[in-house]
Amino acid sequence: MLASTLKDRALLTLNDAVKVGTIDEVFLDAQLQQVVGFRLKRAGLFGTAETVPRTAIIAVGPDALTIASHDAVTTAAHLPWLADARTLTQALSMKVVTEGGELVGTIADLTLDDTARTVGGYLLSASLIARWRHQQPEIAAGPQVHVGTGDIIIVPNDLPEMTAQP
Which letter, b or e, does each residue of 82-106 get, where b requires 16 or more Cβ atoms within 10 Å of its Cβ? Predict the structure, then answer.
């Protein structure tokens, strides 16, 4: 699953079958290895920005994410660990550079496991034709990838690239 596909999915409560809002942003840990939460967008002109931790998500479906009840939804101020988190939007502009100083590319998206918990890899920007042919290069996530405090990710010189498959 691509992290970007989580945006605009509905968030539903199971206890009273209510749509709480839609996913507006995905929060990742500082090393871009785990999904830690989501920012919600509410309907209406003055919709409030609320958050839900990933631990509160019961299921991730193709159209919606579910939580037990509205009690899981809070503001970012009530989740102090979000101060160290990065947003998907921030990650999508990061440059990938080898230890030898060669620019490999820019992150275009993140691949996630089916439960949207763990980052499996970093899709790099590719031409439209390469994406159409499912030949978008991907760097596997893991301890060999070093994420800086700015917008740079360092990978080993000999890190093999994978080709993303549909």
Answer: beebbebeebbebbbbeeeeeebbe
CB 60 within 8 A of CB 116: yes
Do 80 and 101 sit in the same domain of this protein?
A: no
**59 contact partners, CB below 8 Å, separation of at least 6:** 65, 66
> Last residue of a domain, which of 36, 62, 88?
88
- What type of residue sits at position 74? T
Domain stop point among 56, 88, 120: 88
- CA separation for the pair 129, 133 (Å, rounded): 6
Largest CA distance in the chain: 55
Nearest to 9 by CA among 46, 55, 52, 48: 52
Task: Read off the pLDDT of residues 15-43 as tens digits, 9 standing for 90 and up.
Answer: 999 999 999 999 999 999 999 999 998 76
Tokens 């958050």 identify what position? 51
Full-model pTM: 0.87
- Tokens 């101060």 belong to 83
* ∠ Cα 147 152 156 (to 5°): 65
